[in-house]
Specification:
Oligomer: single chain
Structural class: mainly alpha
Mean pLDDT: 91
Helix content: over 70%
Order of helices and strands: HHHHHHHHHHHHHHH
Length: 319
Amino acid sequence: MNRVLPWVIGAALVAVPFVYHEPYPLHIMVIILIWSFLYTSWSVMGRFGLVSLGHGGFMGIGAYVLALLWNYAGLTPWLGIPVAMLATAAIALLIAYPCFRFRIIGHYFALVTLALSAIVQQVITATRDYTGGSLGYTPNPYHRGNSIYALQFSGKETWYLIALGAWAVALLIRRQVERSMLRYALEAIAEDEDAAAAAGVHVTAEKLKITLLSAMMTAFGAALYCQYQLFISPDTVSGITVSLQMVFAAVVGGIYVGVGPTVGAIITIVLAEVLRIGFGTAAVGWDNLIYGILLVVFIIFLPQGIVGSVQARWAAARQ
């Protein structure tokens, strides 16, 4: 039964756009899937104690590099996405290598990555002649409408399937990491770096592997978000707020469980939509306030997150 259930759920999810065509609910599902990918990207790294607050920077780089290459060079997203991922990886390497080499860990590492998010957001805002600054930026629509070449589709059904596939790949990557030797090396490092190094673990290299993987996944998710929305701004794809949102969703959903970030995405997106529809502009910023309060509550009372806590209680009940 445990082996059949994921396939049944997967088949049901794939069937959704073929039997249901309401644009708004499909739009919400697409957004949830894309952000689930992004939150899972953060958790791939964060679950090993590498608390990065720089993923807002990685997301900003991925989205803007893709959009700028399309608008100024006419480079198809099929090539622009890999370039954006490589650019993000280069910045991640530039920041992470000195930190890991000189053992900048814990809250010091978090502060360094936090600075990265702020810097990327400021650079995007300051280069307004190219990026549109705080007013946002729109990738040029393809003159022939729907296009695989431009990765632009008007139908929500197509984007739902793309986002669903990306989300499934994120879960697969997370699962592979959990089953690899990299997991044991990183868990040893998280417990005691000196002991791990004495046991033959190359601490810097192992940390860099997971950081680059997480950063490149984030850039890919940012590229999907950019192509789907066809509008990006410094506030929506970069900065400290985006980084903190990733941390909140992963922690609340369950950082140590594969689908935990997905549950976090459902909570954050639904909450934001409820506030927007129910209170309009009067509720601007309320979601961030609620995120902060809930984050404190969950860290104190449910440190395993929603999914992790449910799993723990289910396991205890079966014993």
